[in-house]
Amino acid sequence: MADLAQLLNDTMRRRHLTAQALADKTGIRTPRIRVFAEDGATGPIRPTEQELHELAVALALPLSSVLDAAGLEPAMAPS
């Protein structure tokens, strides 16, 4: 399981994105993205599932990878 902070930092570096650029793509405030990139999902400010979804879309990552890095399990698909 990857850590959310590491996943964000690696992906943002690969895609040449700053926290501000990611904030512009997602609508998540820049300070929150900085905290997620520093503390991951276990810091004092925790990302919501909606924010994790927005990050996955903006970074072109599978949602399951982002949820796993945040320590959450993807919701089961309806049968």
Written overview of the protein:
It is a single chain. The chain is an all-alpha fold and 79 residues long. The protein is 58% helix and 0% strand. It is built from five helices and no strands. Helix 1 packs across helix 3, helix 2 crosses helix 3 and helix 4 packs across helix 5. The mean pLDDT is 90.
pLDDT averaged residue by residue: 90
Instruction: Count all strands and give the number.
Output: 0
User: Percent of residues in helical segments?
Assistant: 55-70%
Query: In terms of structural class, how would the helical and strand content be classed?
Result: mainly alpha
Strand content bin: under 5%
Number of helical segments with 4 or more residues: 5
Shape: globular
Determine the N-to-C terminus distance.
26 Å
**What would you call the quaternary organization?**
single chain
Low-confidence regions? none
Strand count, sense and barrel status of the largest sheet are: none
Calculate Rg over CA atoms: 12 Å
Task: Give the ordered list of helices and strands.
Answer: HHHHH
What's this, in brief?
The protein has helices spanning 4-14, 19-26, 30-39, 49-58, 63-69. With 79 residues, the chain is mostly helical. The model has no long low-confidence stretch (mean pLDDT 90).
